[in-house]
Amino acid sequence: MPHEVTVVVLAAGEGRRLAAGQNKAYIQLAGRPLLSHCLGVFDRTSLIDQIVLVVARGEEARAGELIGDLTTNNLLVYGGAQRRDSALAGVEAADGKIVLIHDSARPFPSSTLIKRVVEGTRAHGACVPVVPMADTIRYRNEEGFLLPEVVVREGLLRMQTPQGFKRELICHCLQADQQAFPDDAGAVLACGVPVWSVSGEAINLKVTVEEDLLVAEAVASQLVRSAD
Q1: Which site in 33, 35, 46, 56 is 20 to 30 Å from 64, CA atoms measured?
Q2: CA separation for the pair 81, 12 (Å, rounded)
Q3: What is the C-alpha separation between 81 and 72, in angstroms, rounded?
């Protein structure tokens, strides 16, 4: 029987900016791989019927150990050269009428956030979680000096994942546009389709550089203590 909601977890990236010497999806956070934390959230969320994990070739053994412990229906597929290729591979393998696409570098999506995105996708066809910009934003010149103009931050948003789409819609948009978009909503917007937004969460941080890893370790340790 077809699934209602599939989450595609992207874990095929190299994570060069973190310079960890390995795929950051397998870096330890509070005694568990980073990837294990976000898989656990989706596995425990009743709205999720299927998990498709997208991995790099050669990492299927490590990934298989993690999804082997899941109770949710799961599937392992190989990613491609670019993020778009990996997302498309996951979406094409998904059974769900609704597909959520999530970066494994975000280990702490809450079940409440997942529910908001699923409901927004059901209502509008495409939905992403966003967080308003809070910091002052400026430009600097080539010498490194700040320019006097302040970038107006009203209306500026930081994109998060999981991003939700009707499966046929996101499949068409990823196939139609060969550009490299930083997120999957970009492919949908490029096709002229509106994307709904819901509130993201500060805890849904993305591990990109070493400082992020320190914060993520603290969050993971607190979550472990809270669960005990």
Answers
A1: 46
A2: 9
A3: 28
Scan for tokens 């546009």, then name that residue: 177
Which domain CATH number covers 69? 3.90.550.10
**Domain that includes residue 197, residue range:** 5-227
Per residue in 148-192, pLDDT (tens digit) is: 998 998 889 999 999 999 999 999 999 986 777 889 999 999 999
Nearest to 197 by CA among 124, 89, 91: 124
Task: Please give the Cα distance from 59 to 22 (Å, whole number).
Answer: 11
30-62 confidence digits (pLDDT tens): 889 999 999 999 999 999 999 999 999 999 898
Q: Domain count of the chain?
A: 1
Beta bridge partners of 73: 50
111 vs 224: CA distance, rounded Å: 16
* Pairing of β 50-55 and β 73-78: parallel
Closest Cα to residue 125, out of 57, 54, 217, 191?
A: 191
